[in-house]
Design a protein that fits this description.
Elements: H1 2-9, H2 16-23, H3 27-44, E1 48-58, H4 84-96, E2 101-106, H5 112-128, E3 134-138, H6 144-152, E4 157-159, H7 167-172, H8 182-195, E5 198-201, E6 204-205, H9 212-225, E7 229-234, H10 253-270, E8 275-278, H11 280-285, H12 289-296, E9 300-301, H13 308-311, H14 327-340, E10 344-346, H15 354-360
Parallel strand pairs: 1-2, 1-9, 1-10, 2-3, 3-4, 4-5, 5-7, 6-7, 7-8
Helix pairs in contact: 1-3, 2-9, 3-10, 4-5, 6-8, 9-10, 10-12
The structure holds 5'-deoxyadenosine (5AD) and FE2/S2 (inorganic) cluster.
Length: 366
């Protein structure tokens, strides 16, 4: 059986059937997969990890995704919105501690007030860091004009997980209304890429109704779309959401974890030089989950630098780790952890991918 995986791993391009076989690999076969992806990371990226200081600046959300703990319909949490000064202080913390960049994340709000506020914050963050701090935005679906405004104000990366690329599955995990349109999700990703953002996407792994074929399709979509960054994590049910009522359909958490590592390994092999995040959700299942992801292919960690007192309210899923820590605690803990994974944190660099630079200059990609 391992012979088959061995043959697949020699190929230039994987078919859907190949990917499914890799996702199903166990024992010796699985070891081969992880060895291959670790080798590719070593060759194309090196043993390095870059930080994106994560500021979850507001949990106010206008949408109602059926899996998400901060969905509008959840009345069971305290809503918060950091002040501009709190956000700028968190950004200064990142700058002073030589994090190459930060990521601003919140629930999804489309309004002129919020657009202008984010534009202003971007300019002030650029000012306070003399243009040195890279900024990733992750604030959901917006019009191309809004994306353009923020790009011009200094954001250069955008994370918008597609969540599921099979439209049928997408519809099962979102309400059936125009506010949760699969088409718009794809259009948004396209406009981000056209504007010039380093564009990141990803999916949740182990969702109810999700098949191995769906997951293989997700990876082929990312390759086809030519993304620059990938953020994938295990789905973890949140008790106050509608999707939690399908918990009996779920794989055990340890299997979801294992499948996520395989997804990361396979995308590293398929897209050798992109940035891949070791998602925090991995650590909700395994105390050294993120380190395991770093070993087999991921190269980005997003330490949480949201002021501690708000963290408890940004619970997308149950058992979210590190919600009691301060930014300093997170950093010390991560340094020790990454050392354990034999990797080195690169401070003071944006950590742009060779992939993005090649894509921009029109060179042939992997
Ligand atoms: N389990 C795992 N990940 C989740 N997200 C939202 N809800 C959950 C959940 N229950 C992820 C989504 C979103 C990202 C910010 O968090 O993929 O894009
Ligand atoms: Fe907020 Fe999905 S629930 S964007």
């Amino acid at each position: 059986m391992a012979g088959n995986v061995n043959e697949i791993l020699k190929k230039e391009n994987f078919t859907k059937a190949d990917i499914i076989e890799l996702l199903l690999s166990r024992g010796e076969e699985k070891t081969l997969l992880f060895k291959k992806s670790a080798g590719i990371k070593e060759e194309y990226i090196g043993n390095k990890v870059w930080f994106r200081g994560l500021i979850e600046f507001s949990n106010v959300c206008g949408k109602d995704c059926l899996y998400c703990g901060i969905r509008k319909g959840n009345r069971n949490l305290v809503r918060y919105d950091l002040s501009d000064n709190e956000i700028l202080e968190a950004a200064s913390f990142a700058y002073k501690n030589r994090y190459g960049s930060i990521a601003l994340q919140s629930g999804e709000i489309e309004s002129t007030v919020s657009t202008n506020r984010i534009e202003n914050l971007l300019k002030r963050i650029k000012d306070l860091s003399k243009g040195e701090l890279g900024v990733t935005l992750s604030v959901g679906e917006q019009t191309p004009e809004v994306y353009m405004k923020w790009y011009e104000a200094g954001a250069h990366r955008y994370l918008l997980r597609v969540e599921a690329t099979n439209e049928e599955l997408y519809k099962k995990i979102h309400p059936d209304n125009p506010k949760h349109s699969f088409r718009r999700r794809l259009d948004c990703l396209k406009s981000l890429q056209d504007i010039g953002y380093q564009t990141g996407t990803g999916v949740m792994i182990g969702l109810p109704f999700q098949s191995y074929e769906d997951l293989a399709g997700d990876l082929l979509f990312m390759k086809e779309f030519n993304i620059d960054m990938c953020g994938m994590g295990p789905y973890i049910e949140h008790a106050d959401t509608p999707l939690a009522s399908h918990s009996e359909k779920l794989l055990p958490l340890t299997d979801r974890f294992d499948l996520t590592l395989k997804m990361i390994a396979i995308i590293r092999i398929m897209m050798k030089d992109i940035n891949i995040v070791a998602a925090t959700a991995l650590q909700a299942i395994d105390p050294v989950g993120r380190e395991k992801a770093i070993k087999i292919g991921a190269n980005i960690i997003m330490p949480n630098i949201t002021p501690g007192r708000y963290r408890d309210s940004y619970k997308l899923y149950n058992n979210k780790p590190c919600t009691d820590d301060s930014a300093e605690d997170c950093q010390n803990c991560l340094e020790a952890r990454i050392g354990l994974a034999d990797a080195e944190i690169i401070y003071g660099e944006w950590g742009d991918t060779a992939h993005y630079q090649k894509r921009r200059s029109g060179l042939k990609l992997f």
